[in-house]
Amino acid sequence: MFAWFQRLLPRTGDFFGMFEAHASTLVAAAEAMNKLADGGKGRKDDIAEIERREHEADDIIREVLRTVRRTFLTPFDRGAITSLIASMDDAIDEMHSAAIGIDLYELKTFEPEMKEMITMILEAARLTAEAMPLLRDISRNGVRIHEITEKIVRLEGAADDVHATGLQKAFREHSEAPMQFIVAREIYKHLERITDAFEDVANEIDGIVIDHA
After folding, report:
1. Which residue of 7, 27, 29, 57 has the lowest C-beta tally within 10 Å?
2. Is the pTM of this model over 0.85?
3. Domains detected in the chain
4. Average pLDDT over residues 170-197
C-alpha cells in the first residue's frame, strides 16, 4: 500500500528554481527600497513594488511547502528546505514592514545612516541571490558559498554599528522634537530587523553546506 502511494508522489521538485525565484524577489524589493531612500518622485511606486514582490514571495513559499509535502525525494532534509525558504521570506516580510512604516510616517528624507543600512540590505539580497544557484552543486561550490555567507554576516555586524550611530545621532538632533526621534527609531528598528533576517538566511545556508558538502 505504501509503495503504491509513493508512486503517486512526484519524485523530485524544482526546489532550486523556487529558491532562486524567491531570491529574485528579495533583490527587486531591496532595489525598490534603495530607490525609495533616494527620495525620487516614484515614492508610491517604490512602496507598491515592495508590496508586489512580497506577495510574489508569499506565492513561492506556499509552492515550496506544497512541493515538500508531495515530493518523495528532496535535495536536502525537508526541515532544511522549509527553514531556508522561511528565513528568506522573513527578510522580504521585514522589507514590507519597513515600507509600510515609511509610508505610514510619511518619511521623505532619509538620514545618511538609514541610506547606508539600505545599501547593505541591497548587497545582502544580491549575495543571497548569488548563493542560491550554487546550492545545486554544494560539493563544488561549498567554498564560494561560505565566502558569501561570511560577507552577509559581516554586513549584519556593520549594519548594527551604523544603526547604533544613526540612533544616537537622531536622539541628539531631535531632542526638541520627540516625535521625529520616535519615527527615526521606528525606521531604524525595521532596517535592523531586515539585516538580522539576512543573517538568519546566511546561517541556514551554512547549515545546508555543512550537512551536504
Report:
1. 7
2. yes
3. 14-212 (1.20.58.220)
4. 92
